Amino acid sequence: MAVLRIILTVILILVSIAFTVVVLMQEGKSAGLGAISGAAETYWGRNKGRSMEGALVKITTALGVIFILLSIVLNINF
């Protein structure tokens, strides 16, 4: 059991580092202020899900879920 805990801890550390890097790579929400003037209906606004930014959002969500699950599993006393 100690080996499993060590392996899960190492995975948690790697996920934490990747999570931090992916969050820092994303643009801030203030960069999208063009939506106020109607610029959201441009090609970029409609296809944001297929862009690099959309991929970063999906990766961030997945890493966040993995981080939470690993944290819960590591806090169970087994």
Query: Which residues form runs of ≥5 with pLDDT under 50?
Result: none
Helix content: 55-70%
- Average pLDDT level: 83
What distance lies between the first and last C-alpha atoms, to the nearest angstrom?
8 Å
List the total number of helices: 3
Structural notes for this entry:
The chain is elongated and about 45 Å long. The chain starts with a helix and ends with a helix. With 78 residues, the protein is an all-alpha fold.
Quick summary:
The chain has 78 residues and is mainly α. The protein is 67% helix and 0% strand.
Q: What labels describe this entry?
A:
3 helices; mainly alpha; 78 residues
What topology emerges from the helices and strands here?
Layout lengths: L1 H24 L17 H4 L5 H24 L3
